[in-house]
Amino acid sequence: MPNTAHPPTAPVLDTAYAQQLQCGRQWRGFLNALGQEFSAALPAQDVALLMARIGVRFASQNPLAASDTIEGLQAAMNAVWGPLDWGRVDIAQTPAGMDIRHRFCPLAAAFGTSQADWAVGFLQGAYQQWFDSAGAGGLKVQPVTGLDSLGSAQLRLGAA
Amino acid sequence: MPNTAHPPTAPVLDTAYAQQLQCGRQWRGFLNALGQEFSAALPAQDVALLMARIGVRFASQNPLAASDTIEGLQAAMNAVWGPLDWGRVDIAQTPAGMDIRHRFCPLAAAFGTSQADWAVGFLQGAYQQWFDSAGAGGLKVQPVTGLDSLGSAQLRLGAA
Amino acid sequence: MPNTAHPPTAPVLDTAYAQQLQCGRQWRGFLNALGQEFSAALPAQDVALLMARIGVRFASQNPLAASDTIEGLQAAMNAVWGPLDWGRVDIAQTPAGMDIRHRFCPLAAAFGTSQADWAVGFLQGAYQQWFDSAGAGGLKVQPVTGLDSLGSAQLRLGAA
Amino acid sequence: MPNTAHPPTAPVLDTAYAQQLQCGRQWRGFLNALGQEFSAALPAQDVALLMARIGVRFASQNPLAASDTIEGLQAAMNAVWGPLDWGRVDIAQTPAGMDIRHRFCPLAAAFGTSQADWAVGFLQGAYQQWFDSAGAGGLKVQPVTGLDSLGSAQLRLGAA
Hints:
Chains A, B, C, D: It comes from Oryzisolibacter propanilivorax. Chain A is of the alpha+beta class. Chain A has helices at 15-22, 25-41, 44-61, 70-81, 107-111, 120-133; strands at residues 88-94, 97-103, 140-143, 153-158. A four-stranded antiparallel sheet of chain A has the order 1-2-4-3. The B-C interface holds B 1-2, 4-6, 8-15, 17-18, 21-22, 25, 83, 85, 87, 94, 96, 99, 103-104, 142-145, 148-150, 152, 154, 156, 158 and C 1-2, 4-6, 8, 10-15, 17-18, 21-22, 25, 83, 85, 87, 94, 96, 99, 103-104, 142-145, 148-150, 152, 154, 156, 158.
């Protein structure tokens, strides 16, 4: 080994590169163009509703394994998200309702900045459908934040 | 090696498995749900128009290297499609116009049977944009067939 | 729709393209070079043994869900292979032993023609480890065929 | 929107998740087992040499576009790495030789901690082959650091 001109540095994360990796190369261009078209053609509220309907369909086609506990429900959700490289979720009961924190959802990387106000609708629809199926009758999932650039968002299940 | 109970057989293709591989696992579920939602909510003609606008955007964001020949134009198009695992295209001048044959477009695998009448719109928009940029002033790309289950379709550039 | 110059044709599979899709683009070049280096540096028998040891490690790190039946064992194996896009396996009891038929293993696409005599060693090691863990004491997995170009191979579990 | 219980936070990177995404799911388990087998069976120096030979083969099969400048050479290298999701490289002339800094090489994610002393050998071989082809007669590429957990390493081209 030659002398080291630069001391070894701690691994440095690169947000832009990490974001890019979150969305597989095959669909980056298509989804980016689709997101731009949605943002140009429709009000954000309408796209959010469309996304929610897509999320409901997705969750219906990916039903959760039965579970009696919050830990089990969270594990069942992550057993869907994980193998798809869709990040992961933490859920926790709080006084204000069920707190839902999803990290590393690839929709942010896919749609880019055009999605700021509507992509979280997909998660809203998916979690609504899963909680409905788990028997959360009448409670509603609402976003607390949008998706940030790394695909994290917070939602809450509570009284409508 | 033990005795062979079965003689080696010629490799057997499996259309369903090959189709599945065409669309990366990360986006299969999302795109399938999106396609179903489009098909349920809008007439096929409207979805085809939406797809065409997305295709125009995609091609604008993926401009072709300059080329003076049909062979060069085809190579420039395949230099976009290839690294994305979006199949490949053959173009040829015919008396009826420019014949465009795309094979293995992953939209068929992504959207499944719901897409039969509209997914080819994306290719229509993308090729229209690319031919416009190459100076095919006034000529129009029209689909001759829809996308079959393996993502092949035929289109034609000609007088509108 | 304009008149159709060519009647729609049945979807046509393309073995070379289907093979290419079996191995993700990120690792195609690396694994191809690795396979060539192995083939150049070592006798095929030694590479097959190395592959078998790698297969044993892989299966140890991907243990199967418990199962009492052959159907259950096959389902547990496919629950490992499926989400990795590693094809699928059919197992069946026969007078000559347990017949193991794996289809669409991506090692053939990864290593190309250099792998003809040794890549099946990975499957041999993996199935050996899984059958050992399932209690197939003393029986040995042996390849009946190598991996063909689409990643299919036959193996058999029987008396050594 | 309901009241926000938690103020929006800045996007938080997660090194472990970012590392996992660097290596496509299809090959994570295979490459991890392969790396463990190499580390168990051979001295790190021998594995590094094997990796270097694989790197030479890879670079030979992915020749660079011709270039007269360092900027052009760097762009040609990144035109190989980029579409494969193999990170990127910066090269710069320094008094001590050509400084080569590669970031986000997926070998670290693929091989995990087992690779600390040898995986950089692949980059050494690849850059050696590319610089040889570009006419860097007699100069040698040597690693200055190993690959860190996010796939960054520094190498240098200089007098042997």
